[in-house]
Structures
1.
Amino acid sequence: PACMLCRRADADLDICGYIHETNGVCAHAFCMLFANGLSRQGNIQEGIAGFLLEDVRHAIMQADQKRCFVCGERGAAITCTETGCERSFHLPCASEGECVTQYSRQHRAFCWEHRPQQAVQASPEQDTNCVICLDPVGDDKSYHTMVCPSCTHAWFHRG
Protein backbone atom coordinates (compact mmCIF):
# COMPACT_ATOMS: atom_id res chain seq x y z
CA PRO A 1 0.00 0.00 0.00
CA ALA A 2 1.06 3.59 -0.59
CA CYS A 3 1.97 5.97 2.22
CA MET A 4 -0.82 8.50 2.61
CA LEU A 5 1.70 11.27 3.35
CA CYS A 6 4.21 10.89 0.49
CA ARG A 7 1.88 8.84 -1.72
CA ARG A 8 4.62 6.34 -2.57
CA ALA A 9 4.44 2.59 -2.18
CA ASP A 10 7.95 1.99 -3.48
CA ALA A 11 9.92 4.66 -1.56
CA ASP A 12 13.43 3.88 -0.34
CA LEU A 13 13.22 2.41 3.17
CA ASP A 14 16.48 4.13 4.12
CA ILE A 15 14.86 7.51 3.43
CA CYS A 16 11.21 6.95 4.42
CA GLY A 17 11.43 4.07 6.88
CA TYR A 18 9.05 1.14 7.16
CA ILE A 19 5.42 1.59 6.26
CA HIS A 20 2.87 1.22 9.07
CA GLU A 21 -0.84 0.56 8.61
CA THR A 22 -3.57 0.89 11.22
CA ASN A 23 -7.35 1.22 10.72
CA GLY A 24 -7.01 2.20 7.06
CA VAL A 25 -4.24 4.76 7.66
CA CYS A 26 -0.94 3.92 6.01
CA ALA A 27 2.28 5.95 6.45
CA HIS A 28 6.06 5.60 6.45
CA ALA A 29 7.73 6.04 9.85
CA PHE A 30 9.98 8.91 8.71
CA CYS A 31 7.22 10.61 6.72
CA MET A 32 5.31 10.87 10.01
CA LEU A 33 8.37 12.15 11.91
CA PHE A 34 8.95 14.96 9.37
CA ALA A 35 5.28 15.85 8.68
CA ASN A 36 4.24 19.36 9.71
CA GLY A 37 2.64 19.52 13.15
CA LEU A 38 2.84 15.78 13.76
CA SER A 39 4.61 14.48 16.85
CA ARG A 40 4.75 11.13 18.56
CA GLN A 41 2.35 11.15 21.52
CA GLY A 42 2.51 7.59 22.79
CA ASN A 43 4.80 4.63 22.92
CA ILE A 44 5.66 2.83 19.70
CA GLN A 45 2.81 0.31 20.15
CA GLU A 46 0.08 2.97 20.42
CA GLY A 47 -1.85 4.41 17.48
CA ILE A 48 0.25 4.15 14.34
CA ALA A 49 3.89 3.70 15.44
CA GLY A 50 3.28 5.98 18.44
CA PHE A 51 1.42 8.71 16.53
CA LEU A 52 -2.24 9.28 17.39
CA LEU A 53 -4.44 8.13 14.52
CA GLU A 54 -6.48 11.33 14.52
CA ASP A 55 -3.26 13.40 14.33
CA VAL A 56 -2.00 11.38 11.34
CA ARG A 57 -5.34 11.78 9.57
CA HIS A 58 -5.19 15.54 10.20
CA ALA A 59 -1.62 15.72 8.82
CA ILE A 60 -2.75 13.83 5.70
CA MET A 61 -5.60 16.31 5.14
CA GLN A 62 -3.26 19.29 5.62
CA ALA A 63 -0.68 17.80 3.25
CA ASP A 64 -3.34 17.30 0.59
CA GLN A 65 -3.68 21.10 0.41
CA LYS A 66 0.01 21.60 -0.48
CA ARG A 67 1.97 20.88 -3.66
CA CYS A 68 5.51 19.58 -3.64
CA PHE A 69 7.85 22.22 -5.08
CA VAL A 70 9.99 19.39 -6.52
CA CYS A 71 7.49 17.11 -8.33
CA GLY A 72 4.42 19.39 -8.39
CA GLU A 73 2.11 16.72 -6.96
CA ARG A 74 -0.25 17.27 -4.02
CA GLY A 75 0.30 15.79 -0.60
CA ALA A 76 3.50 17.59 0.42
CA ALA A 77 3.58 16.96 4.17
CA ILE A 78 6.91 18.69 4.91
CA THR A 79 7.51 22.44 4.86
CA CYS A 80 10.92 24.07 5.13
CA THR A 81 11.85 24.79 8.74
CA GLU A 82 13.03 28.33 7.88
CA THR A 83 10.54 30.86 9.26
CA GLY A 84 8.52 32.43 6.44
CA CYS A 85 9.48 29.84 3.82
CA GLU A 86 6.45 28.16 2.26
CA ARG A 87 8.26 25.50 0.18
CA SER A 88 6.71 22.10 0.86
CA PHE A 89 7.84 18.71 -0.39
CA HIS A 90 7.47 14.95 -0.08
CA LEU A 91 10.21 13.17 1.86
CA PRO A 92 11.19 11.00 -1.15
CA CYS A 93 11.54 14.20 -3.26
CA ALA A 94 13.91 15.90 -0.81
CA SER A 95 17.15 14.69 -2.39
CA GLU A 96 16.06 15.50 -5.94
CA GLY A 97 15.14 19.01 -4.79
CA GLU A 98 18.50 19.33 -2.99
CA CYS A 99 16.75 19.67 0.36
CA VAL A 100 18.38 18.68 3.64
CA THR A 101 16.55 16.47 6.12
CA GLN A 102 18.09 16.09 9.57
CA TYR A 103 17.33 12.69 11.03
CA SER A 104 17.91 13.74 14.62
CA ARG A 105 15.80 14.49 17.68
CA GLN A 106 13.96 17.47 16.10
CA HIS A 107 13.65 15.99 12.57
CA ARG A 108 14.08 19.28 10.76
CA ALA A 109 13.88 19.75 6.98
CA PHE A 110 15.12 22.58 4.79
CA CYS A 111 14.55 23.54 1.15
CA TRP A 112 17.49 24.08 -1.22
CA GLU A 113 17.64 27.80 -0.42
CA HIS A 114 17.65 27.51 3.39
CA ARG A 115 19.54 24.26 3.89
CA PRO A 116 22.52 24.34 6.26
CA GLN A 117 25.91 24.37 4.54
CA GLN A 118 29.10 22.76 5.76
CA ALA A 119 31.32 25.39 7.36
CA VAL A 120 34.45 23.68 6.03
CA GLN A 121 36.06 25.59 3.17
CA ALA A 122 37.92 22.56 1.75
CA SER A 123 37.40 21.33 -1.81
CA PRO A 124 38.13 17.80 -3.02
CA GLU A 125 41.41 17.30 -4.83
CA GLN A 126 41.33 15.85 -8.33
CA ASP A 127 40.79 12.04 -8.34
CA THR A 128 39.34 12.04 -4.79
CA ASN A 129 37.14 9.01 -4.13
CA CYS A 130 34.23 8.56 -1.73
CA VAL A 131 35.44 6.74 1.39
CA ILE A 132 32.23 4.68 1.43
CA CYS A 133 31.52 3.62 -2.16
CA LEU A 134 35.00 4.37 -3.61
CA ASP A 135 33.53 6.18 -6.64
CA PRO A 136 34.94 9.61 -7.59
CA VAL A 137 33.37 12.61 -5.81
CA GLY A 138 34.42 15.12 -8.46
CA ASP A 139 36.59 18.16 -7.90
CA ASP A 140 33.96 20.67 -6.72
CA LYS A 141 32.00 21.06 -3.50
CA SER A 142 28.32 20.40 -4.14
CA TYR A 143 25.07 19.35 -2.53
CA HIS A 144 25.89 15.75 -3.47
CA THR A 145 29.24 15.56 -1.65
CA MET A 146 30.34 16.14 1.93
CA VAL A 147 33.69 16.26 3.69
CA CYS A 148 34.63 15.05 7.15
CA PRO A 149 34.61 18.25 9.25
CA SER A 150 37.48 17.01 11.44
CA CYS A 151 40.15 15.96 8.96
CA THR A 152 38.79 17.78 5.82
CA HIS A 153 40.36 15.04 3.65
CA ALA A 154 37.75 12.26 3.76
CA TRP A 155 35.00 12.91 1.19
CA PHE A 156 31.76 11.02 0.65
CA HIS A 157 28.54 11.20 -1.31
CA ARG A 158 25.53 12.56 0.59
CA GLY A 159 23.39 9.65 -0.58
2.
Amino acid sequence: YQDASYFDNPAHAPGKLITRLASDAPNIKAVVDARMLQVIYALSAIVACIVIAFIYCWQVAILGTSLILLLAFVMIGLAYKISVMNIEQIKNDEAGRIAIEIIENVKTIQLLTRCDMFFDHYETASKQQKRSELKKGMIEAINYSITQSFMYFMMCFTYAVGIRVIYQGDKSSDDTFKGIIAMMLGAVAVMNSAQYFPEFVKAKTAAGMLFNIIYRKPRTGDLMEGDRPEIRGNILFENVKFSYPQRPLQPIMKGLQWTALRGQTVG
Protein backbone atom coordinates (compact mmCIF):
# COMPACT_ATOMS: atom_id res chain seq x y z
CA TYR A 1 0.00 0.00 0.00
CA GLN A 2 3.01 2.35 -0.07
CA ASP A 3 3.49 5.05 -2.67
CA ALA A 4 5.77 4.40 -5.64
CA SER A 5 8.48 6.74 -4.36
CA TYR A 6 8.91 4.51 -1.29
CA PHE A 7 10.14 1.64 -3.47
CA ASP A 8 12.24 4.00 -5.61
CA ASN A 9 14.44 4.57 -2.56
CA PRO A 10 17.42 2.14 -2.61
CA ALA A 11 16.96 1.56 1.13
CA HIS A 12 13.57 0.00 0.35
CA ALA A 13 14.64 -2.23 -2.51
CA PRO A 14 12.78 -5.57 -2.62
CA GLY A 15 15.90 -7.44 -1.54
CA LYS A 16 16.35 -5.26 1.55
CA LEU A 17 12.68 -5.41 2.50
CA ILE A 18 12.64 -9.20 2.20
CA THR A 19 15.80 -9.40 4.31
CA ARG A 20 14.20 -7.25 7.01
CA LEU A 21 10.98 -9.27 7.09
CA ALA A 22 12.94 -12.54 7.12
CA SER A 23 15.27 -11.56 9.98
CA ASP A 24 13.39 -9.04 12.16
CA ALA A 25 10.41 -11.24 13.03
CA PRO A 26 12.55 -14.17 14.32
CA ASN A 27 14.69 -11.71 16.31
CA ILE A 28 11.60 -10.36 18.06
CA LYS A 29 10.19 -13.84 18.64
CA ALA A 30 13.46 -14.92 20.26
CA VAL A 31 12.75 -12.95 23.46
CA VAL A 32 9.01 -13.60 23.80
CA ASP A 33 9.50 -17.00 25.39
CA ALA A 34 11.14 -18.46 28.52
CA ARG A 35 13.88 -15.82 28.32
CA MET A 36 11.35 -13.08 28.97
CA LEU A 37 10.09 -15.00 32.02
CA GLN A 38 13.66 -15.42 33.25
CA VAL A 39 14.25 -11.67 33.09
CA ILE A 40 10.93 -10.93 34.87
CA TYR A 41 11.88 -13.43 37.58
CA ALA A 42 15.30 -11.80 37.96
CA LEU A 43 13.85 -8.27 38.29
CA SER A 44 11.37 -9.50 40.90
CA ALA A 45 14.16 -11.25 42.78
CA ILE A 46 16.35 -8.12 42.75
CA VAL A 47 13.54 -5.95 44.16
CA ALA A 48 12.74 -8.52 46.86
CA CYS A 49 16.41 -8.89 47.83
CA ILE A 50 16.89 -5.12 48.10
CA VAL A 51 13.83 -4.85 50.37
CA ILE A 52 15.09 -7.70 52.60
CA ALA A 53 18.55 -6.16 52.78
CA PHE A 54 17.15 -2.78 53.86
CA ILE A 55 15.10 -4.47 56.58
CA TYR A 56 18.11 -6.21 58.15
CA CYS A 57 21.10 -3.98 57.34
CA TRP A 58 20.54 -0.70 55.54
CA GLN A 59 24.29 0.04 55.25
CA VAL A 60 24.89 -3.09 53.17
CA ALA A 61 21.64 -2.52 51.26
CA ILE A 62 22.65 1.01 50.18
CA LEU A 63 26.02 -0.22 48.91
CA GLY A 64 24.51 -3.22 47.10
CA THR A 65 21.77 -1.11 45.52
CA SER A 66 24.36 1.43 44.34
CA LEU A 67 26.37 -1.35 42.70
CA ILE A 68 23.26 -2.69 40.95
CA LEU A 69 22.34 0.80 39.71
CA LEU A 70 25.90 1.35 38.48
CA LEU A 71 25.73 -1.93 36.57
CA ALA A 72 22.34 -0.93 35.14
CA PHE A 73 23.76 2.37 33.79
CA VAL A 74 26.71 0.52 32.22
CA MET A 75 24.34 -1.97 30.56
CA ILE A 76 22.10 0.85 29.27
CA GLY A 77 25.14 2.56 27.74
CA LEU A 78 26.30 -0.66 26.10
CA ALA A 79 22.77 -1.35 24.86
CA TYR A 80 22.58 2.09 23.26
CA LYS A 81 25.94 1.55 21.56
CA ILE A 82 24.86 -1.84 20.21
CA SER A 83 21.50 -0.43 19.04
CA VAL A 84 23.28 2.27 17.04
CA MET A 85 25.55 -0.37 15.50
CA ASN A 86 22.53 -2.58 14.71
CA ILE A 87 20.75 0.25 12.88
CA GLU A 88 23.91 1.11 10.95
CA GLN A 89 24.38 -2.55 10.09
CA ILE A 90 20.80 -2.83 8.85
CA LYS A 91 21.22 0.24 6.63
CA ASN A 92 24.42 -1.17 5.12
CA ASP A 93 23.20 -4.75 4.82
CA GLU A 94 23.97 -5.46 1.18
CA ALA A 95 24.66 -9.19 1.54
CA GLY A 96 21.00 -10.14 1.99
CA ARG A 97 19.84 -7.90 -0.86
CA ILE A 98 22.49 -9.27 -3.22
CA ALA A 99 21.68 -12.88 -2.29
CA ILE A 100 17.96 -12.42 -2.97
CA GLU A 101 18.55 -10.63 -6.28
CA ILE A 102 20.98 -13.37 -7.36
CA ILE A 103 18.41 -16.06 -6.59
CA GLU A 104 15.66 -14.16 -8.43
CA ASN A 105 17.82 -13.63 -11.52
CA VAL A 106 20.00 -16.74 -11.42
CA LYS A 107 19.25 -17.82 -15.01
CA THR A 108 20.08 -14.42 -16.45
CA ILE A 109 23.33 -14.29 -14.47
CA GLN A 110 24.31 -17.74 -15.73
CA LEU A 111 23.49 -16.87 -19.34
CA LEU A 112 25.59 -13.71 -19.13
CA THR A 113 28.43 -15.67 -17.44
CA ARG A 114 28.58 -13.15 -14.58
CA CYS A 115 28.52 -15.70 -11.73
CA ASP A 116 32.04 -14.86 -10.52
CA MET A 117 31.32 -11.13 -10.46
CA PHE A 118 28.16 -11.51 -8.38
CA PHE A 119 29.91 -13.99 -6.08
CA ASP A 120 32.65 -11.41 -5.48
CA HIS A 121 30.03 -8.75 -4.68
CA TYR A 122 28.33 -11.08 -2.21
CA GLU A 123 31.65 -12.08 -0.60
CA THR A 124 32.66 -8.43 -0.14
CA ALA A 125 29.29 -7.56 1.44
CA SER A 126 29.47 -10.62 3.71
CA LYS A 127 32.94 -9.67 4.93
CA GLN A 128 31.72 -6.17 5.75
CA GLN A 129 28.84 -7.70 7.70
CA LYS A 130 31.29 -9.99 9.50
CA ARG A 131 33.48 -7.05 10.57
CA SER A 132 30.43 -5.27 11.94
CA GLU A 133 29.38 -8.38 13.88
CA LEU A 134 32.88 -8.75 15.35
CA LYS A 135 32.82 -5.14 16.61
CA LYS A 136 29.41 -5.74 18.15
CA GLY A 137 30.64 -9.01 19.65
CA MET A 138 33.41 -7.17 21.52
CA ILE A 139 30.87 -4.95 23.27
CA GLU A 140 28.67 -7.94 24.08
CA ALA A 141 31.73 -9.74 25.48
CA ILE A 142 32.50 -6.78 27.76
CA ASN A 143 28.93 -6.83 29.03
CA TYR A 144 29.05 -10.59 29.60
CA SER A 145 32.33 -10.45 31.51
CA ILE A 146 31.09 -7.62 33.77
CA THR A 147 27.71 -9.19 34.54
CA GLN A 148 29.01 -12.72 35.09
CA SER A 149 31.64 -11.47 37.57
CA PHE A 150 29.23 -9.05 39.26
CA MET A 151 28.52 -11.44 42.14
CA TYR A 152 32.19 -11.42 43.15
CA PHE A 153 32.31 -7.62 43.18
CA MET A 154 29.15 -7.64 45.28
CA MET A 155 30.68 -10.18 47.66
CA CYS A 156 33.86 -8.16 48.07
CA PHE A 157 32.20 -4.80 48.79
CA THR A 158 29.31 -6.05 50.93
CA TYR A 159 31.59 -8.15 53.14
CA ALA A 160 33.95 -5.21 53.55
CA VAL A 161 31.09 -2.96 54.71
CA GLY A 162 29.46 -5.75 56.73
CA ILE A 163 32.64 -6.46 58.71
CA ARG A 164 32.94 -2.75 59.48
CA VAL A 165 29.30 -2.59 60.62
CA ILE A 166 29.74 -5.63 62.91
CA TYR A 167 33.03 -4.27 64.29
CA GLN A 168 31.43 -0.93 65.22
CA GLY A 169 28.41 -2.70 66.72
CA ASP A 170 25.87 -0.89 64.52
CA LYS A 171 24.13 -4.18 63.65
CA SER A 172 24.31 -7.71 64.95
CA SER A 173 26.30 -10.22 62.93
CA ASP A 174 23.07 -12.16 62.28
CA ASP A 175 21.27 -9.20 60.69
CA THR A 176 24.36 -8.09 58.79
CA PHE A 177 24.87 -11.50 57.20
CA LYS A 178 21.19 -11.66 56.27
CA GLY A 179 21.60 -8.36 54.43
CA ILE A 180 24.77 -9.58 52.70
CA ILE A 181 23.17 -12.85 51.60
CA ALA A 182 20.15 -10.94 50.26
CA MET A 183 22.36 -8.73 48.09
CA MET A 184 24.35 -11.78 46.95
CA LEU A 185 21.14 -13.44 45.78
CA GLY A 186 20.27 -10.22 43.93
CA ALA A 187 23.64 -10.41 42.18
CA VAL A 188 22.92 -14.02 41.19
CA ALA A 189 19.61 -12.88 39.65
CA VAL A 190 21.53 -10.26 37.64
CA MET A 191 23.96 -12.92 36.39
CA ASN A 192 21.16 -15.29 35.34
CA SER A 193 19.26 -12.66 33.35
CA ALA A 194 22.15 -10.67 31.84
CA GLN A 195 23.10 -13.53 29.51
CA TYR A 196 20.02 -12.66 27.41
CA PHE A 197 21.21 -9.08 26.96
CA PRO A 198 22.25 -9.44 23.26
CA GLU A 199 18.90 -11.01 22.29
CA PHE A 200 16.90 -8.22 23.95
CA VAL A 201 18.95 -5.45 22.32
CA LYS A 202 18.64 -7.14 18.92
CA ALA A 203 14.88 -7.61 19.45
CA LYS A 204 14.43 -3.94 20.38
CA THR A 205 16.17 -2.77 17.19
CA ALA A 206 14.28 -5.31 15.05
CA ALA A 207 10.92 -4.31 16.56
CA GLY A 208 11.58 -0.65 15.83
CA MET A 209 12.48 -1.35 12.19
CA LEU A 210 9.58 -3.75 11.68
CA PHE A 211 6.91 -1.49 13.14
CA ASN A 212 8.28 1.46 11.16
CA ILE A 213 7.52 -0.53 8.01
CA ILE A 214 4.10 -1.69 9.23
CA TYR A 215 2.82 1.69 10.43
CA ARG A 216 4.33 3.94 7.77
CA LYS A 217 1.68 6.14 6.17
CA PRO A 218 1.94 6.57 2.37
CA ARG A 219 2.62 10.12 1.23
CA THR A 220 -0.23 9.81 -1.23
CA GLY A 221 -2.70 9.10 1.60
CA ASP A 222 -4.59 6.02 2.74
CA LEU A 223 -6.26 4.21 -0.16
CA MET A 224 -9.08 3.13 2.20
CA GLU A 225 -10.00 6.74 2.99
CA GLY A 226 -11.01 9.80 0.99
CA ASP A 227 -13.77 10.72 -1.45
CA ARG A 228 -15.24 8.42 -4.07
CA PRO A 229 -16.07 10.79 -6.93
CA GLU A 230 -18.20 9.85 -9.91
CA ILE A 231 -15.85 9.02 -12.78
CA ARG A 232 -17.05 10.08 -16.24
CA GLY A 233 -14.03 8.83 -18.14
CA ASN A 234 -12.53 12.09 -19.48
CA ILE A 235 -8.92 12.71 -18.46
CA LEU A 236 -7.18 16.07 -18.68
CA PHE A 237 -3.49 16.69 -17.95
CA GLU A 238 -2.59 20.35 -17.50
CA ASN A 239 1.04 21.43 -17.12
CA VAL A 240 2.14 18.20 -15.40
CA LYS A 241 5.64 18.14 -13.89
CA PHE A 242 7.31 15.00 -12.58
CA SER A 243 10.73 13.79 -11.42
CA TYR A 244 11.76 10.72 -9.44
CA PRO A 245 12.36 11.34 -5.70
CA GLN A 246 15.95 10.09 -5.91
CA ARG A 247 16.70 12.41 -8.89
CA PRO A 248 14.74 15.62 -8.24
CA LEU A 249 16.93 17.71 -10.57
CA GLN A 250 16.27 15.48 -13.58
CA PRO A 251 12.65 16.10 -14.63
CA ILE A 252 10.91 13.33 -16.59
CA MET A 253 7.88 15.45 -17.49
CA LYS A 254 7.81 19.24 -17.89
CA GLY A 255 4.67 21.07 -18.91
CA LEU A 256 2.91 17.91 -20.11
CA GLN A 257 -0.59 18.67 -21.40
CA TRP A 258 -3.04 16.37 -23.19
CA THR A 259 -6.63 15.13 -23.09
CA ALA A 260 -8.12 11.65 -23.38
CA LEU A 261 -11.88 11.48 -23.91
CA ARG A 262 -14.10 8.67 -22.79
CA GLY A 263 -13.69 5.65 -25.07
CA GLN A 264 -10.56 7.04 -26.67
CA THR A 265 -7.24 5.18 -26.60
CA VAL A 266 -4.15 7.34 -26.07
CA GLY A 267 -0.48 6.19 -26.00
